[in-house]
């Protein structure tokens, strides 16, 4: 009877310890979220302080003929002796159709800008949260998570802003089904398209990180990716054609090539993870 009582007390102590550990994790997660929100507020405030430059220089940049992408396209078209590559900017007016549209636009632009700037810090907080649960070897293997994930995301945002967004917006604004229809662009529609294409590109560029995680879990491997390469190429070409619905293959290739390179980098990452898994398995069998 006494032994049963002692065992019950021990089990109760283990349960209390587990519950305390669970609540400690919740408390740690709460502070990670609080710090992330504070970082977002700081970067959003910073974007609001420089709102004139953010709106006129960055958000409205792809409307100007002096935008970097259009100047490079004009130079490339001249070098290749191809007409239609030089762009004179958008002549269509941008309108606000609601009373608070300009105010809402200001808030949305500042929040999106703050979000993009805060992504590296968000990733740092994610790393700090999961780091205690990792073994020493796992910590060393994933030590560059924040740097690589942040770099890929920012690279994708730049690619989306300078390549995907201007090419897509140029086509969509210039496309007409009839000369009797005058194009008036709602400013919130323009902002939504620019944001979607830019942030979408940033997320797509995280593909090597996703492949690393899937390979680490044993869901994906380099052999499977090599076997399905032809299907991946087909899907990437379809995505590139949708993103840049222009008739020339050169413009589509500008979008497709970086995505193909990301897929090849993903194969290399998966192969590296596979070798480490095989080495770890061999060490366990030898021990």
Automatic annotation (TrEMBL):
The keyword Transport applies. GO terms for cellular component: TAT protein transport complex. The chain crosses the membrane at residues 33-51, 103-124, 145-164, 197-219, 231-247, 253-273. Pfam families: TatC. It is found in: Cell membrane; Membrane. Belongs to the TatC family. This is Sec-independent protein translocase protein TatC.
């Amino acid at each position: 009877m006494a032994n049963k009582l002692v065992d019950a007390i021990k089990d109760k102590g283990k349960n209390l310890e587990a519950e305390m550990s669970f609540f400690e994790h919740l408390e740690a997660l709460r502070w990670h979220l609080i710090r992330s929100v504070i970082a977002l507020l700081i970067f959003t405030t910073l974007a609001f302080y420089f709102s004139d430059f953010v709106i006129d220089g960055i958000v409205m940049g792809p409307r100007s003929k002096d935008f970097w992408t259009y100047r490079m396209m004009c130079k490339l078209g001249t070098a290749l002796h191809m007409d239609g590559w030089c762009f004179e900017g958008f002549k269509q007016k941008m309108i606000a159709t609601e009373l608070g549209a300009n105010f809402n636009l200001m808030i949305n632009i500042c929040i999106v800008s703050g979000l993009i700037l805060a992504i590296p810090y968000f990733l740092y907080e994610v790393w700090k949260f999961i780091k205690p649960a990792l073994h020493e070897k796992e910590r060393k293997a994933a030590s560059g998570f924040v740097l690589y994930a942040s770099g890929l995301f920012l690279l994708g945002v730049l690619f989306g802003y300078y390549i995907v967004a201007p090419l897509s917006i140029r086509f969509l604004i210039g496309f007409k089904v009839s000369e009797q229809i005058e194009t008036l662009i709602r400013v919130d529609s323009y902002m939504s398209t620019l944001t979607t294409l830019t942030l979408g590109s940033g997320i797509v560029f995280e593909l090597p990180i996703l492949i690393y995680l899937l390979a680490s879990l044993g869901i994906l491997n380099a052999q499977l990716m090599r076997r399905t390469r032809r299907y991946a190429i087909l899907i990437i070409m379809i995505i590139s054609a949708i993103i840049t619905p222009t008739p020339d293959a050169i413009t589509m290739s500008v979008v497709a090539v970086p995505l193909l390179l990301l897929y090849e980098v993903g194969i290399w990452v998966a192969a590296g993870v596979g070798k480490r898994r095989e080495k770890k398995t061999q060490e366990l069998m030898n021990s």
